[in-house]
Design goal:
The structure is a single chain. By secondary structure, the protein is an alpha/beta fold. The protein is built from 16 helices and eleven strands. The strands form two sheets. It has a six-stranded parallel β-sheet with strand order 2-1-3-4-5-6, with helices on both faces. Strands 8-7-9-10-11 form a five-stranded parallel β-sheet, with helices on both faces. The radius of gyration is 20 Å and the shape is globular.
């Protein structure tokens, strides 16, 4: 099966979770090529239509798999190849982008949502879209996120063996991640250092997740955040506001705590992990839910074949 994966190329690289999913499809036997959309806004994306049609003519794919609503809308403007679109959250939660995503949903052969919450928002009042939709969270490569001894991980990352560390689930300058609330929560706790998740490679991210006492998520909105699955794979405790599918991910596990969006509530939830450091059973949960990329790839191939 030949799959043309269509994704934004505006940041100079393909989002890691898209690249890893594409590689998992290759490992499962698919012939996969990437088409990078260049441009900003709806008009910028639509200017890629001629390039996309040329790529389709040369590669002759069986299916187009677009990531994010604007890429999906672009793909549905051709009629030769069925289109599958994955919506990752920002294309649903942003009220300016949602109407364009809904246009893509109506035209696509199938729509994938990464969480039940985003699907509920997207398909509200649209039974036809609901019938052509699935919830398939992006997977992770478990091999990239091993469980490492906490002290060893701290040594590798140059952290104090007796330090109290909380890893923020994103970059401080990303407004959606709401670093202000995270900083306020950690300011209520003695001797706690809040680490920014920015500028690290894959291996370093895994080491940080093994080294810290907990991961903290305070985002205003999310889809199905990869960082939560990655932290679970490393056995890292999680404290989060109720956002995206985080509550679903850690439901029935000892992987973390969902709490109110106040500094006081977050600080209280972090305290047990800081006072008594431990690892969680998150990796077992991720494996049990078939969220390794190889398992997700098999679900996608079944979907492609049905089209």
């Amino acid at each position: 099966m030949k799959v043309l994966v269509v994704v934004s190329g505006n940041h100079g690289r393909v989002a890691p979770f898209v690249a890893e999913q594409a590689e998992a499809l290759r490992q499962a036997g698919c012939d996969v090529e990437l088409f990078k959309v260049e441009g900003h806004g709806a008009s910028g994306y639509l200017r890629n239509l001629h390039r996309l049609k040329d790529a389709i003519g040369q590669f002759q794919p069986d299916v187009l798999h677009a990531h994010y609503g604007l890429c999906g809308l672009l793909c549905t403007l051709q009629h030769r190849v069925p289109v599958v679109v994955t919506y990752h959250g920002s294309d649903i939660n942003d009220s300016r982008v949602l109407p364009l995503s809904r246009m893509a949903m109506r035209r696509a052969a199938h729509n994938i949502f990464v969480s039940e919450r985003t699907k509920e928002i997207a398909v509200r009042h649209s039974s036809s879209v609901n019938k052509r939709s699935s919830v398939i969270p992006c997977g992770i490569n478990l091999g990239d996120f091993p469980i490492v001894d906490r002290i060893e991980a701290r040594q590798r990352m140059g952290l104090l063996s007796n330090g109290r560390y909380v890893l923020f689930a994103g970059a401080f300058d990303n407004a959606v991640k709401n670093a202000t609330l995270a900083k306020a929560a950690c300011a209520l706790l003695p001797d706690v250092l809040l680490l920014e998740l920015k500028g690290y490679n894959r291996n370093e991210v895994a080491m940080l997740m093994n080294a810290v006492d907990a991961l903290l998520m305070t985002s205003h909105s999310e889809g199905s955040p990869q960082v939560i699955k990655e932290a679970m794979a490393c056995g890292c405790p999680i404290v989060s506001v109720d956002v995206g599918d985080v509550a679903e991910m850690i439901d029935g596990a000892d992987a973390g705590i969902i709490t109110a969006s106040t500094a006081e509530a977050l600080a209280a939830a972090l305290t047990p992990f800081l006072d008594h450091p431990r690892r969680t059973n998150g990796r077992k949960v991720i494996m049990g839910r078939n969220l390794d990329n190889s398992a997700v790839a098999q679900r996608l191939i079944t979907l492609y074949s049905s089209l």
